[in-house]
Amino acid sequence: MLADTPTTVLEAVNQIIATIGEPPVNSVEDNGVIDAVMALQALSAVNRAVQLRGWHWNTEENYPIAASYPEGELRLPKNTLRVDTSGADAGLDLVVRGQRLYDRKNHTFEIGKSVSVNIVLLLPFEELPEAARTYITIKAARRFTEGQIGSELLSNFTLRDEQMALFALEDAEGETADYNILNNSFIVEVAGR
Question: What residue ranges do the domains of the chain occupy?
Answer without folding.
Answer: 9-53+125-176, 70-121
